[in-house]
Fold:
Amino acid sequence: MTRILITGASGLLGLNLSLLETGRHVIIGVDRSKLAGTPFELIRADLLDRQAADHILDTVRPDAIIHTAANANVDACESDPQGAQRLNAELPGELAEACAKRGIRLAHISTDAVFDGTLERPYTESDTPNPLGVYARTKLAGERNVLAANPQAIVARVNFFGLSLSGTRSLSEFFFNKLSTGQQCNGFTDIYFCPLFVGDLAETLVKMLDKNLSGLYHVVGSEALSKYAFGQRIARQFGFDADLVIPRSVEESGLKARRSHNLRLSIHKLSTDLGLEIPSVSTGIEKFYTQAQQGYPQKMRSYQQI
Ligand SMILES: NC(=O)c1ccc[n+]([C@@H]2O[C@H](COP(=O)([O-])OP(=O)(O)OC[C@H]3O[C@@H](n4cnc5c(N)ncnc54)[C@H](OP(=O)(O)O)[C@@H]3O)[C@@H](O)[C@H]2O)c1
Structure:
């Protein structure tokens, strides 16, 4: 079994990844203070502490790291550009260098939001990014810092949905929370994306490490749809009233950061190099539904530090 260190272990991706891979691999999660009693080992650390990364790597001696920790709140990044620069741009480069020195494999998580969305086709890894806001700009700088320090690293541009510790982190939870209580909610008709179920993303990332892939990859779902259509699909899967999802333009939403209208990414390189089909959003929504029905939210919350 491989020893995998997962940063951001309390986050939407990090917690799902850690829980799913425990038992298949030895998982060590880095957490600031949100978790307790998890079935995987925990290390308490603030990764912004300058000595933290070196100390963790020398103590844990992992075979691989999946670096999910970030400021992933697009609007919060607009309010704290310096903090976002430190966490999303500088830290990944430092971690990549520390991994390169020690021969540790690294999968770094980036975002589909690096593109401005002006192309009228899915973006490939060769297309030129043009970030629209602080989050996207700092994530792009993070990608570049990682690959400059450690060309053997994987940089995965992702978009995903699923269940989180807070119950409010993902777009799927946003729609679920509104629709399950009979509330109307806005669904953007003018943002197209390729969401991947978080469990499918977790498994794909580990397969990429197992296959020793390196470099930049788009790691998203195999189907593009609007955020409005995604909300309607969640409604139908759970048997909620799909008319509660109100079609709206993101331009009338009043959100702080500018959003790209086309977040469609091509997964041709990924599926070719992995030799696998990447799951669709339809099967992902079914898995999201099954987890919600089978007590996974309660299981997650049982690991929350009180
Ligand atoms: N969610 C999406 O659809 C999406 C889309 C595209 C890309 N991404 C990328 O995917 C990755 C994971 O996103 P997510 O949605 O899982 O994020 P998330 O739920 O907001 O989790 C972020 C994690 O980072 C941790 N963290 C933040 N600052 C830290 C620090 N100084 N030291 C240690 N840990 C720290 C957080 O810990 P605390 O709990 O203690 O704050 C949390 O565990 C990110 O790189 C994000 O940019 C996400």
Summary: Residues 8, 10-14, 30, 32, 34, 46-48, 68-70, 72, 87, 109, 111-112, 139, 158-160, 169 surround NAP (CB under 6 Å). The first strand starts at residue 3 and ends at 7. The mean pLDDT is 96. The radius of gyration is 18 Å.
